[in-house]
Amino acid sequence: MPPNISDRIHLFQIIGETFSYTVAKQGFITSLNPLTSADWDKGLEDTGRARGFVTKRNDLKAYIKQQLELIQHPHCIYCGLHKNIVGTLQREHIAPKDLYPEFLFEPENLALACASCNGFQKKNNTNTVSTSNVIYSRCRFTIIHPYRDDYRNHYDMDITGNEIIIKAKKYSRKGKATIKMFGLDEPHQAQMRGASLMQRYVPVDVDLQKLLDAALKKDYY
Fold it and tell me: What tens digit of pLDDT does each residue of 128-153 get?
């Protein structure tokens, strides 16, 4: 039997659904307008919000993460690796919150990403918006958007030995930009994707399983 989807090492995803806020949570978000990036993680002294804001905000962020984990199974939305491999996943703003605070709690702008993909050496606060608009649905992006784009239109995958190599399709600027930003062509990621394929479809004997386990215990970063 192949492993359950939530146990797979690797899973590139097209997110076909967004989570919804409860009436109370949406009311809280609306009460914060206009939003600033400080509203995401700063305290009362930095935001100037009323007492009780931090507790409600933190509850809201916990709810967001819980909903995204259910949707993403949970794998990093960019490299596709499972949290058992890359560690705790972070709430990520596809359009960076420091540049676009108006989309701070926009469900289609929120996803889970690993610390590596979302860190200083990769995405961080890089502007991913090519055309901005006050209406999120009218914004255009430089990278593959997990809610809007089908990664299969932008990537080619080649199986070489025990590795799955990711290459951008010839005319896909988004594919090239995404691969470059998140290092999807790095050897370690190719090995992890290959291990995922073997885990899913190839009968594994004891010795091979030991090799896979050893490979998965290597530090990701």
Answer: 999 999 999 999 999 999 999 999 99
Strands 163-168 and 140-141 come out as unpaired
Cβ pair 184, 178 in contact under 8 A: yes
d(CA 77, CA 17): 14
CA angle, residues 130, 42, 76, in degrees to nearest 5? 50
221 in any annotated domain: no
In a domain, 52, yes or no: yes
Count of structural domains within the chain: 1
Q: Classify residue 146 by its DSSP letter.
A: T
Distance CA 6, CA 83 (A): 10
Assign 220 a pLDDT band (cuts: 50, 70, 90): very low
Report yes or no: 68 and 91 within 8 Å, Cβ to Cβ. Answer: yes
Give the range of the structural domain holding residue 80, as residue numbers without chain letter.
5-216
Residue 52 Rama label (left phi>0; alpha psi -120 to 50; beta): left
Nearest alpha carbon to residue 98 among 29, 144, 38, 146? 38
Output the average pLDDT for the chain: 88
List all residues 6 or more positions away from 183 whose beta carbon is below 8 Å from its beta carbon: 79, 122, 189
List of E strands, the chain: 90-93, 110-113, 129-131, 140-141, 155-160, 163-168
